[in-house]
Amino acid sequence: LLRPGDVVAVEAEWYLEVEGKPEPVLAITPKDRNEAIRAAFDVGNRHFPVAISGEDLLVPDDTAMEQLLSRLGVAWKRTTAGEQAITARTPPTEGLVVMASRSHASDTRLAAFLEGRKVATISNIGSSLKLCRIAEGAADLYPRLGRTMEWDTAAAQAVLEAAGGSVRTLDGAVLTYGKEDWANPHFVCFGRQE
Prior knowledge:
By secondary structure, this protein is of the alpha+beta class. Helix content is 26%, strand content 29%. A four-stranded antiparallel β-sheet has the order 4-5-3-6, with helices on one face. It has a three-stranded antiparallel β-sheet with strand order 9-13-11, covered by helices on one side. The chain is globular, with a radius of gyration of 20 Å.
């Protein structure tokens, strides 16, 4: 994750530093899923970038975009977007939000692992997005009890750890890299631990 002020290259007579500032955007607040899809489709068809921030779609503050949104009849407001830190959370008292693999949703090992834990919800989604949901504080736990490779987890593990979470093998060790066959052992991703 690069932040304003990070130095990414240094030579004898120069250096390269990241500069960033908030950017003016239009925040679209769709009233429902269909309106969100329609707005994202129309914005994307005009080759404008779209970012998601909570319930809002963020698009460049541009006259053509303003006109498009007015024609679509969607609610929007002017604001700025910039760097937004994400932080893993400590588990809430009402129970864990658990991420589970879509391809291993019915795995009996998951039920056994969660036995005795207070679970509020379980969401089955694919890819390393599960680690990112924990990093942003939207989930608390992801037990991975199936096969993964180093390239499946490395980037998302870095994001999670930068946000205060951790990835541990079942024996409690930090998940590490450089294994001869690139295969990961089973592991568990956590948000912040008390």
